[in-house]
Amino acid sequence: MQTSTIYFILNLFDKKTGLKAAQTFHILQGKRTGSTLFQALRNQTLTYYGLFPQMERTAFDAVIQKSTQTGALIEKEEGWFYLTESGRSWIRRYFDSTGCPDQIDQSLYGFFDLDFWEKIQLLTQVLSEKSYLNTVYVPMTQSLPQQYWVKKWLYRYEDESLLDRFYQEWLYLFQQMGDEKADVLSRQLTGHSQIGQTRGQLLGKKSQDKVFLIDQIHGLLQLIDAHSSDCPLFYSVRQDASEENHGQLSKTAYETKQLLEENLSPEEIAVRRQVKLGTISDHLVEIAILQGSQETLHLYNQEEKNQAAAYLSKNSKKQYKDFLSVYGLKEEDFPFYKYRLIEIEEIQNRYDSSRKAT
């Protein structure tokens, strides 16, 4: 495991409430369950959800064990770990020397970031070769879907000014991000007189560790979102990549959302798709967390919201079955998905208020 990854994992535990090791592993691996996404939201680790999909549990546990032995972490309750002052000092010294990856946002970009970056790399190469009227070259990716996408994209946007406009947008974005970050990305670009270095070739250089690479790509995407009117060509690539990957949603959650937009209830959707209501509940949690609770507000009324919100504000355990017992309700009267969606809305509103206050 790369050094940057180890320090990045340790940094996640820098919270007053601590983190449960098992939950943190599932969050970093991107386990597709409603409970994992909910824990990521509640622990404010959603921006790192699915950052290390290939991470092995044994490797993660080894990091936790060694960090505990060296005093960087302390286990105060079974399975719950807290960062120590020594650990905090080690992390600070490491990131002071390498730079801290502070642009990562998996909840917004993690489901299409690498697809977007491959599209940009291939498009940059194709337009560079076109500028030299060269038609004989080896594409930087052998992916046929990506090559077909470039052809479609060129059909939509190609005109006499395309080469200059694309170059000017690259220049504008490089100027916005600064020399060092621009150098990191530009070294991966292939053009008429330059063969871009692959991620594998750049491994070992701190700026191309997994964490730092994703940080740079997400930083680029943030710039594109913030300056979409100044770089419409890049924004169109960002939108294509997002749409091809169902935005932030899994394919199954995306299909459930489509049926919600047809005004079907969760119960009707479960029947239509021939799955359990619990499965649809997981999809609704994914939609509410990754796309915002405004997407699911119509699934409960104000009276239901007030009832659940009152319970949530007064009970630290926040158990669904306890909620039903307190109000004398049955599951069919108040399905679990309503309770969870209201809880998600309350958490999101609280975080939004906290951000505005700061």
Write a structural description.
The protein is mainly alpha-helical. It has 3 domains: 3-100, Arc Repressor Mutant, subunit A (Orthogonal Bundle), CATH 1.10.10.10; 113-244, no CATH class; 251-357, no CATH class. It is 63% helix and 3% strand. The protein has helices at 3-12, 21-29, 34-42, 57-69, 85-98, 106-109, 113-131, 144-157, 162-177, 179-186, 199-202, 210-226, 232-244, 251-260, 266-273, 277-291, 302-314, 320-327, 336-357; strands at 19-20, 73-77, 80-83. A 3-stranded antiparallel sheet has the order 1-3-2. A hairpin with a 2-residue loop joins strand 2 (73-77) and strand 3 (80-83). The longest helix has 22 residues, at 336-357. It is globular and about 75 Å long. The protein starts with a helix and ends with a helix. Mean pLDDT is 89; it is low at 198-208.
Briefly say what this structure is.
With about 350 residues, the chain is mainly alpha-helical. The chain has 19 helices and three strands.
Series of secondary-structure elements, N-terminal to C-terminal = HEHHHEEHHHHHHHHHHHHHHH
Mean pLDDT: 89
Proportion of β residues?
Answer: under 5%
Look at the helices and sheets and give the structural class.
mainly alpha
Radius of gyration: 23 Å
The total count of helices amounts to 19
* Number of self-contained structural domains: 3
How is the biggest beta sheet arranged? Answer: 3 strands, antiparallel
Roughly what percent helix? 55-70%
* Number of E strands: 3
Low-confidence spans? 198-208
Question: In what order do the strands lie side by side in the largest sheet?
Answer: 1-3-2
The dominant shape is: globular
How far apart the termini lie comes to 36 Å
Protein name: Helix-turn-helix domain-containing protein
Domain Helicase Helix-turn-helix: 252-341
Pfam family, one: HTH_40
